[in-house]
Specification:
167 residues, alpha/beta, 4-stranded parallel beta sheet, 3-stranded parallel beta sheet, 5 helices, 26% helix, globular
Length: 167
């Protein structure tokens, strides 16, 4: 779910009965009553660090624990606290490791044909050590300004340095 501010149950516009997961994107700050209750088959929840509160009834909390719902998100965020408070497993991704998305585009056999795509790759274990957003941006001078404006990457470096590890 994407948007700004609080998400309400009335905002749900899709048939969500069969959904196994729900993701709350950057910009959502609160999840109101009834939203998570609408997802009966929930196996995972992805919570962006912009989320600061999720309404949870005692019945919902019990259902989340019974289904062993996985919470994915950002370290040192509400999502991590949410998982801990409700006795749920918390991970950055399904494998439990920090990762990066990257685009790999190559020319194809004809001018109108390209290959490649967007991929997910694990970060090296010591990726963050000694790095700041600014030093990382220097690796990629062509994209320096974009990297320096990337709030998610800045959040990652801040929490990785604070925790003393990258994952």
């Amino acid at each position: 779910m994407c948007g700004k501010g609080t998400v309400h149950a009335k905002d749900l516009e899709v048939d969500h009965d069969g959904y196994r997961g729900v993701a709350f994107c950057k910009g959502i700050t609160e999840v109101g009553p009834g939203v998570l209750e609408a997802f009966l088959q929930l196996d995972y929840i992805v919570i962006h660090y912009s989320v600061k509160a999720i309404a949870v009834s005692p019945e919902l909390a019990a259902r989340l624990r019974k289904r062993k719902v996985l919470v994915r998100g950002w370290y040192d965020s509400y999502g991590e606290r949410f998982a801990r408070e409700h006795g749920l497993e918390f991970r950055i991704n399904e494998q439990g490791k920090p990762y990066r998305f990257y685009d790999d585009i190559c020319t194809g056999w004809a001018a109108s044909n390209n290959g490649g795509g967007t991929y997910e790759r694990e970060l090296d274990e010591n990726f963050y050590k000694g790095e700041t957003l600014e030093t990382f941006a220097e690796w990629f001078t062509r994209f320096r300004n974009d990297i320096l404006r990337n709030e998610d990457l800045a959040y990652y470096f801040m929490t990785a340095q604070k925790r003393g590890h990258g994952c």
